[in-house]
Design a protein that fits this description.
The structure holds two protein chains of two kinds. Helix content of chain A is 0%, strand content 46%. Chain A is mainly β. Chain A has a single domain, classed as Sandwich (Immunoglobulin-like). Chain A has a five-stranded antiparallel sheet with strand order 3-2-4-11-6, with no helix packed on it. Classes of the chains: A mainly beta, B mainly beta. Chains A and B meet through strand 1, strand 2, strand 4 and strand 5 of A and strand 1 and strand 2 of B. Chain B: Keywords: Signal.
Chain lengths: 152, 311
């Protein structure tokens, strides 16, 4: 974890009370044939991955406490070996960053170039994603986000 | 077939494939994902990591084997047939090399690593293989020499040398998986080549003086790589050599089954030939290409090429 991008949000960082949990999973998209001849995409634990494969990174949060939780931010630095592709199906689109500090949509991001100056960022430049949950998370409720990535 | 009394010598080179694109994550690499959460409870800011999930990049097993040079002439002095072995997989791998021949009148004296790549065996520098090859890095190529000699009874027509390279981790149908057998303890999975490659190399026997025809190929995929994927264009090049004057020579080559001839791609010595069976030397159809060379002078060399698209 890169603490830097959390600093503005966590000026007074305290230990986590047990009620709020965050679980991440890395899943593979698999085509499953149905009896009626159609196929649907199922998410399964990846049996094996090789460069070029697409995976889905899921984060699931749960407020198991008795109070609502405010200001929930879930951040996921892209691990080495994964390249961001897009938001997961049925997930809110994450805010993206190419440096872990400035977040926004891809169109707002630029990366420095060796010759000086900057160029528009591409999906392959994304180093961090995050989701900000706008409303308090009620006690007992949960939610999830996901993004798709390619194994570099 | 070229002229009369000419051995059909079509060197069926295996697919020319490039090394894996650079920058690919190496087999055995652990990809670890950890998210984090931050929030406010009772006016206090908290942050915490999620669990960490680790996935290990599987080793893709692929191999290429390409004969080098023209059709060899084998005589009773041990000679060499050069090949290049390439680790087309994504991990470190060694390969077993097997050599057999279509005739029994050839002595197969083993396979050597051609350390200096000169195509000749030199006991001082080159190393005989006594088992699988040394471990090869992804994309690494190794020049090999099959060492052969004619035994009494070999005819000028020669035969075919059959060389096979197989990944020692395993081979078989594409996507067959060997759990835990890959680099870094990850799985190994068979790639498009089946993790085995073979080359049939025609050779001529002692005193062969007939024409020879060697065939090579180059692949250009839609993405610009040399991977033989669907939609890739393969350029076949046939080089006919005529040591002596030859009459009524002609080259016929079937378009490989399943591929589609690219109209207008037939050429002779760099000049395009029409596909129709008309005034020029060539004709091409969906099944075969044909080029009439006619009478050739001693030492002549003619080059025919055509293109097909992979299904």
């Amino acid at each position: 974890m890169t603490p830097l991008f959390l600093l503005p949000l966590a000026a007074a960082v305290a230990a986590t009370p047990a009620p709020l949990s965050l679980e991440t999973k890395v899943l593979a998209e698999t085509r499953v044939a149905a009896a009626d001849g159609t196929t649907r995409i199922a998410l399964v634990a990846p049996r094996r991955i090789v460069p070029g494969d697409q995976v889905v990174v899921q984060v699931v949060y749960r407020n198991a406490g008795r109070q609502p939780i405010d200001g929930l931010v879930i951040a996921n630095p892209l691990p080495q070996g994964l390249a961001y592709r897009d938001a997961g199906a049925a997930s809110a689109a994450p805010e993206l960053s190419v440096d872990g500090r400035t977040f926004g949509t891809l169109a707002t991001l630029r990366v420095p170039v060796a010759a000086g100056g900057t160029r528009p960022a591409g999906v392959g430049d994304v180093t961090h994603v995050r989701w900000r949950v706008p409303n308090p998370v009620a006690a007992g409720s949960s939610g999830q986000f996901a993004f798709r990535a390619i194994v570099r | 077939m070229i002229g009369r009394a000419c051995p059909i010598v079509l060197a069926l080179l295996c697919m020319a494939q490039s090394a894996p694109a650079s920058g690919q994550t190496r087999a055995g690499t652990a990809i670890v994902n950890t998210a984090s959460i931050s929030y406010t409870l009772d006016g206090t800011d908290y942050q915490a990591p999620s669990n960490s999930v680790t996935i290990v990049v599987a080793e893709r097993l692929d191999v290429g084997l390409a004969p080098q040079g023209s059709v060899p002439v084998v005589d009773e002095t041990p000679g060499t047939v050069p090949l290049v072995l390439t680790n087309l997989g994504s991990g470190q791998e060694s390969f077993t090399i097997d050599v057999s021949a279509s005739v029994t009148t050839i002595a197969l004296d083993g396979v050597a690593i051609d350390r200096n790549g000169d195509g000749r065996f030199d006991a001082a520098t080159d190393t005989m293989l006594t088992g699988p090859t040394p471990v090869m890095q992804p994309g690494e190529s190794l020049p090999l020499l099959a060492i052969v000699a004619a035994t009494p009874g070999m005819t000028a027509a020669g035969g075919d040398l059959h060389v096979t390279a197989t990944a020692i981790t395993g081979s078989g149908p594409t996507t067959e998986t060997f759990p835990g057998a890959g680099d870094g303890g990850g799985d190994a999975v068979v790639g498009d080549t089946g993790a085995t490659a073979s080359a049939d190399i025609p050779f001529l026997g002692p005193n062969a003086a007939g024409p020879t025809l060697s065939k090579s190929q180059a692949v250009v995929a839609p993405d610009g790589s040399a991977q033989p994927v669907s939609g890739a264009v393969v350029t076949y090049t046939l080089v006919a050599r005529f040591p002596d004057a030859t009459r009524t020579a002609r080259i016929d080559d079937p378009v490989p089954a399943g591929t589609t001839y690219l109209p207008g791609s037939l050429s002779l010595d760099g000049a395009v030939l029409s596909d129709a069976a008309d005034g020029d030397a060539g004709s091409a159809g969906p099944r075969t290409i044909s080029v009439v060379l006619g009478d050739t002078a001693p030492g002549a060399m003619r080059t025919v090429s055509f293109k097909v698209r992979l299904p």
